[in-house]
Structures are given as C-alpha cells and as structure tokens.
Specification:
three-stranded antiparallel β-sheet, mainly alpha, flat, single chain
Length: 576
C-alpha cells in the first residue's frame, strides 16, 4: 500500500527528532580523557627517575645524565620540578607536586604522575597530601647538581618540536660547551630543517671549537664565525686575541685571523644596530603621526592650540589598561574562555577611541567653545585642563601601570642575523598605516570630510551655505581626541602607562605639525616618520636629552628654510 505524503512527512519528522535527541544525549555526556598507557620504555624512564631520590650522589648524577640523553621532552617539567624541590616519594610512589591549593584553612598539594602529569588517585579519589607532610617527603637537586640538571634540560630541549625552543637550547648548548653537547648538536644538525636553527648549530659548534687545543681547529672556527658575523662570538674572539702575544709565527697568523673576524663582526654589528634604530624610529614616528594628525585637524579647523592633546593619548592608554583588566576578571570568573584574553587588544582599540573622543567632546563643549577667537586664553585653559587630567588619573590609578602584550604580539621576525623586528612594533606601524588611510578616505570621500574641509578653508562661507560650524567643531575635536586615544592604545605595546606620558610626546607632536604643514596628511606622515627616525638614531650617540635637543635644533633650522612647513597651509591659517 503506498504511503500517503502526510504520513511520509510525519515519519521523516519523527526520524529527525529521534536522531537529534540521540545526538543531544551524546553531546551532553561528559568527555573523559582516556588513561595514559605507559610503554616499556616509559617504565625504564620511571625507574631512572626514581634513582633521583637515592642518597648516593653518584647515582643521582648518573640518573640525571641518562634522563638528559633520552630525548624525551616530557622530562623537562619533571627535571624542572626536581630542580625546585617539588619531587615527592609517598608510600614508595614517585610523584610531583608543583602547585599548592587551599582547602579551608589547610594547604594541600595534589600529586601528579611524574611522567604523564596525570592526577594520581587513591581509593578512587584524587590523591592530595598536606603541605606539612609534603615537606618531609620531597626531594630536590642539591646545589652542586643544579648545573647538571640545567644541562640535561638543555639537551632535552634540543629535540623539542618547537623551533623557538630548539633555537634557545642550541645557543645555550654552544655557550655551555662539553662533549655531550657537541655530540647532540651534531646529531641535531643532520635532521634539522629550520634555517635559523641550522645556522645557530653551526655557530654554536664553532664557538665550542674556539677552546680546542688544536691551532688549526681554532683558526677555522674564528674564520667561520667571522663569515657568520656572529655577534655572540665577538667577546670570545676578542678575549682570544688578547691572549696572543704575536711573537710566535702561529700566534701572529692567529692574531691576524682574529682581527679580520672582529672587524667583520663589528661592521655588521653597526649595520644591525642602525637598522634596529631606524625601525624603532619608524614605530615611534607612527605614533607621532597619529598624534599630529588629530592635532593638526583641530588646529587647522578651529585655530585652537590644544595643550591637553597629550592627555587624550594618556586617556586612550588607560582605557586599554582597563579593557585588559576587564578581560582578566572575565576570564578568571569563568565568564569568558581563557583564549578570549588573547583578543582583548582588539576590543581595547574602539574603547580607547570612544573614551578619548568622549572626553574631547566634553572638553570642547565645556571649555573651548567659549574661547573661540582667543588663542592665548585657549592655550592657557587647555594647559590647565592637562594638569587637572594628569592629577585626577594619578589619584585614581597611581603612578605606573603596564599592559601585557597578547602572545601573538610577542617575539619578533628575524630578517637577518641579529636583526629582529619585534611583532608589537610591526603591529604599531601597520595599525597606524590603516588609521591614516581611513582618515584620508574620511576626509576626501565622505560628507563629513567635505564639511570639515569647507569649514577649514573658509568658515564664514561654509556657515553662510548652511553648515553648522559649531557642530563640525565639536565632531572634529572629538575625532582628533579619538585619534590621539588610538595613539595611546598603540603606545602601550612599547611603553609603560603613566599619568604624564602625554607630556613626553606633545612637544614632538607640535613639531611634526609645524614641520609637515598645518592640516596636511602627507606632511604629518613625512615629518612624523622623519623626526622619529632622527630621534632614535641620535639617542645612542648623544643620549635621550641631547637627542631631543638636536631634533629641536633641526626643526628650527628647517623652518628657517621653509617657514610654512613641507606643505604650506591654505585657508584662514595660511598667513598665521
């Protein structure tokens, strides 16, 4: 008998609901991690680990050496616990207890498996002992054994799956030396694919060969380190050159090789430092560009010299700090998952814009609106407002705060040996470039930008055509303050947060505005990057104070040549 369409639909609906119910039940069941299965090699490792609790120092040293040569990365946390005295032997059971927690008025330690780090159980419950009991059952490395443990950890990290860990271990093995490290480095060199790690292995082996008793090996090592322009080896080669008296023919040849390598390394060191200073100057200049961008818009539109503009940067920095603290609280309270803290900075950017822009809008409404046409009174009023904001923030937050960079902004990009571009500074440069492009589009492609440009060039004519110039003034002041808030948000990645941090950049920002030309985006970019690079290049030679003095002198000399800046202003401030 054929199935009617209505019955077929009902049957499919019931089948779908049944499958959905089964899937929901299975999803609701808690997932339990499968127990870790120990292999025969793991049993051998556990036996060796148990020897660390022996009273015989020779057996402990041999056990440490055996564990270090096992290439098992799971032993790194165990040896770290052993070095810190967190290994325990409770009822003939080896365990680790790295953390203490409070249960009522008592502090207890949860016992973990020394190899797998799984919680140990006793009578079907997690095995915990009191802190007092743990003190009598704990074992740790003696002072003479700690270096041996550190060397063993270095050997284990040489074969870590993460390239950064291997790179750090390779450098440490080269600094430590020893036959065991040499053998491990040569073994790793055969299988290593990461170019940075391979270079570090070659460098470390050459550094170890500097201490060889054979003259030919030392000469070859010095030549190789010179070709690698190894800054790590510079002090060692200099010390080697000092020990040569130059009287013997072999010593003279060795001394010539050392001097040649030292010269090559020092020349590259100068180049690497110069590149680093220029890059730091570009990142600092990017912040100055944002500051000068908001400052020049306000000055070009309203003719207001806003001495509180630096405090808008400070407010944006503290808004970033508060966003960080809010995410910390939310993660700690379980409101957000732990990974959410990694994206807090993306939420801090709009928060900095809103807070700094809101303060700027209130400042324009409460103070500046009543002082238009009186530039001296405006300067003094904003100067007083800056002190009020600084002291208010100091009373609320104290003198010094800091922002923790997310993990994706830590580390750096090594573009050449010993030339590393930190990720946080790269982010600042890219971030500022995006904001500048957005501001360009806002000013040239939107109705607000059209009204802003019209009011800047001829306020009277714009007002006669129906433009609400007072409203444009308020929005522009809020926009300039919001841009300064974003500059403060970016500055937290490379600097601490202090109530007077805006005072350190306000003078430089005004110099960027004057040197680039009032209200000129291209001028602000060129002047900001140029002054930032000039400052960071001069500071290593003359110090921070004289670097600022030289920058000010350079701006004064430049203005003698071009009094109106790189791009002269147009409109009502053209003759100012």
């Amino acid at each position: 008998m054929p199935i009617r369409p209505s019955l077929a639909v009902s049957f499919r609906s019931m089948l779908f609901l049944a499958l959905f119910a089964v899937a929901t039940v299975h999803a609701a069941e808690p997932e339990t991690a499968p127990p870790t299965i120990l292999t025969p090699s793991d049993a051998a490792l556990l036996a060796t680990m148990a020897e660390l609790t022996d009273s015989d120092a020779a057996k402990r040293k041999a056990a440490i050496a055996t564990l270090g040569q096992s290439r098992d990365g799971r032993l790194v946390p165990f040896l770290t616990d052993f070095s810190q005295g967190s290994v325990l032997k409770v009822d003939d059971t080896l365990a680790v207890g790295p953390q203490t927690r409070e249960v009522g008025d008592t502090k207890v330690i949860d016992l973990l498996h020394p190899l797998t780090r799984d919680p140990l159980e006793r009578e079907g419950k997690p095995w915990s002992i009191s802190e007092e009991e743990a003190k009598s059952k704990s074992f740790g490395a003696a002072r003479a054994e700690r270096k041996t443990v550190a060397d063993a950890i270095t050997l284990l990290k040489l074969f870590d799956p993460k390239p950064e860990q291997r790179l750090s271990a390779v450098k440490k093995a080269g600094d430590t030396g020893g036959e065991i490290n040499v053998a491990a480095l040569k073994t790793l060199q055969e299988s290593e694919r990461d170019e940075r790690v391979r270079r570090a292995i070659t460098e470390s082996l050459a550094i170890i060969n500097l201490t060889s008793s054979e003259q030919e090996i030392r000469v070859a090592a010095v030549k190789q380190l010179g070709e690698l322009v190894s800054i790590r080896a510079l002090s060692r080669i200099q010390d080697l050159a000092k020990t040569l008296d130059g009287q013997k023919p072999n010593d003279a040849a060795m001394l010539a090789v050392c001097r040649e390598s030292i010269g090559a390394i020092e020349r590259w060191q100068t180049v690497a430092r110069g590149i680093g200073h220029v890059f730091s100057g570009i990142s600092l200049g990017s912040v100055l560009v944002l500051m000068a961008l908001g400052l020049s818009i306000v000055f070009g539109l309203m003719g207001v010299i806003n001495m509180a503009h630096g405090e808008m940067l400070m407010i944006g920095a503290y808004a970033t700090f508060l966003t960080q603290e809010a995410f910390k609280w939310a993660v700690g309270a379980g409101v957000l998952p732990p990974w959410a803290f990694e994206i807090y900075f993306l939420f801090a950017i709009p928060m900095a814009v809103v807070v700094a822009g809101g303060v700027g809008l209130f400042l324009e409404w409460a103070v500046i609106r009543h002082l238009y046409g009186r530039p001296l009174e405006t300067l003094l009023a904003t100067f007083g407002v800056s002190f009020i904001l600084i002291q208010s923030v100091r009373l609320i937050f104290g003198n010094n705060r800091s922002v923790n960079n997310p993990s994706w902004l830590q580390g750096g990009w090594e573009i050449a040996p010993d030339v590393i571009f930190p990720y946080n500074r790269i982010f600042i440069i890219v971030f500022c470039a995006v904001i500048v492009c957005a501001m360009y589009l806002l000013i040239t492609k939107t109705r607000l930008g059209l009204l802003l440009r019209a009011t800047t060039q001829n306020r009277t004519m714009a007002a006669s055509l129906g433009v609400n110039t007072r409203r444009i003034d308020g929005l522009t002041f809020a926009l300039g303050s919001g841009i300064a808030g974003m500059a403060g948000c970016a500055l937290t990645l490379i600097s601490n947060i202090t109530p007077d941090m805006g005072q350190a950049v306000i003078v430089d920002s005004f110099m960027v505005v004057v040197a680039g030309g009032v209200g000129k985006l291209a001028g602000a970019i060129i002047a900001g990057i140029g002054l930032g690079c000039f400052t960071k290049t001069m500071e290593p030679w003359f110090g921070a104070v004289w670097g600022q003095v030289l920058m000010l002198a350079a701006v004064v000399i430049f203005l003698q040549w071009r009094p109106s800046g790189l791009f002269p202003a147009k409109g009502r401030l053209a003759d100012a």
